[in-house]
Amino acid sequence: MRTVSFVADNQLRLLECGAEFFPALINALDVASAEIHLETYIFADDAIGASVKAALIRAASRGVMVYVVTDWIGTGRAQSGLLDAEFRAAGVHHRSFNPWFRRGLARTHRKMCVVDRSLAFIGGLNINDDMISDDDSRSVLPEPRWDFAVEIRGPLVAAMHRETEAQWLRLGSLKIKVRWELFRETRILSRAGRVGSALAGLVIRDNLRNRRTIQRATLRALGGAHKSAVLTTPYFAPGRKMREALSQAALRGIDVTLLLGVGQFRMQDAVAHSFYPKLLESGVKVVEFRRTQLHAKAAVIDDDWATVGSSNYDGLSLFLNQEANVVIKDAAFATTLRGHLERAIAASALIAPEAFAGIGRLERIWYGMAYFLYRNALRLATFGRYS
User: Fold this and answer.
1) 109 classed as catalytic
2) Which of 9, 45, 116, 255 is catalytic?
3) Which one has a higher pLDDT value, 251 or 356?
4) How far, CA to CA in Å, does 182 sit from each of 29, 112, 186, 323, 386?
């Protein structure tokens, strides 16, 4: 089991929603001079997708080596085929992750981009319009989907480049010797000088050596918390260890707040609600974000620990899919992220323990049934690892 490998001297910038993320991403693509690696779960056929696609094609036309990985399910079978044809015609290298489930049930849910081995982005934003529902292209949201990404300069970019390079190679058919030589070359070339002060580490989740790395990083931070913990996720259905860690932190006096997305999937909401009684009883504050779709996967613990990335606190992200987060130990970054989370909490609905205790019997039965079905489906999909 791997732990987080932190590197110092990084410069980090928090980007909120597509209004900040996409201009920064497209600008980086437009000034790229050598190489681009981009991974995303969804690459939509909308205005945002067209803008990013055009920037990637412009880069390829300048002679930049451009590599794009999209998930076959997240992007869609038809859209994946169209993207592949258009990218290939323009000189952009493209691969779909796990078409027709040839590699099992796992999806790549990672959202990363590395440009010229000197600048990187990581977070929860897909390549899609954040005013359009990501599960129904006909549904316009009342506000932009709420999410974060982090722009990174510094030594951590080397680790991100190695990971995106390795992902590209894994999806190909190169021989082991060629893969190793390319990996060695990447390690030699991916060096960065000092550009900032933040301590940060890349944490990924896969089904090999990194099965529990992201969860373990959060559990360690919760276990060592002294004052507070704020976590936000659109889909809340973690395993027993994570739920117990949240409750235990609250019971020992830590101010624990869960900011959860609701209203997108009825089944998911019911599963999350099945956990409310024990969480509320232990003192965890549960807050529901109802203004628009919440898509952020982030946390701040105490004054200097933070994480942003693609991993939800649910069974799919923690036990099945490929995910990528950045974990940051930096007071300034943690303060900035905490400010965004606290403003969202102030504009959301706090679940009162006494009010939730008064829900009807039928609702309780429905919540229990939803969790029973979810738990058993995930146990099958993860070969019993979800509990």
Assistant:
1) yes
2) 116
3) 251
4) 23, 20, 6, 23, 36
